[in-house]
Amino acid sequence: MNSGDLNFGSGPFLLLKKNLTSFNKIYILTNDHHKFIGYLRSFDKHCNIILENVTEIWHEEVFVFFNQKKTNINKKNISTKEKYSPIIFLRGDTIIIISKFFAD
């Protein structure tokens, strides 16, 4: 397949193409369970994506050390972390889900 044969006007890339012009936020989940919410600025045939005004959200377990052993006290010790970036590049092979962002 030549790069000239690629049609972004149909199939799975249609959602991405529509979001380039509509300026709606999109939601991306990666294989390390990080969530990215931002505005789509560019993508390619490998699903590499550039997002702007991005909020990255992930969860971390809080561990406590007893007698030099790392133990998780209970499952409720999970903290949610959040980070803002003005622009970010996501490699296509790490992306699991792409969706429109629907605010809660």
UniProtKB/TrEMBL annotation:
It is found in: Cytoplasm, Cytosol; Nucleus. InterPro entries: LSM_dom_sf, Sm_D2, Sm_dom_euk/arc. Signal peptide: none annotated. It comes from the Eukaryota. Residues 14-100 form the Sm domain. It holds the Pfam family LSM. One of its GO terms (cellular component) is cytosol. One of its GO terms (biological process) is mRNA processing. Gene3D superfamilies: 2.30.30.100. Keywords: Cytoplasm, mRNA processing, mRNA splicing, Nucleomorph, Nucleus, Ribonucleoprotein. Its main location: cytoplasm. Belongs to the snRNP core protein family. This is Small nuclear ribonucleoprotein Sm D2. It comes from Lotharella vacuolata. The gene is snrnpSmD2.
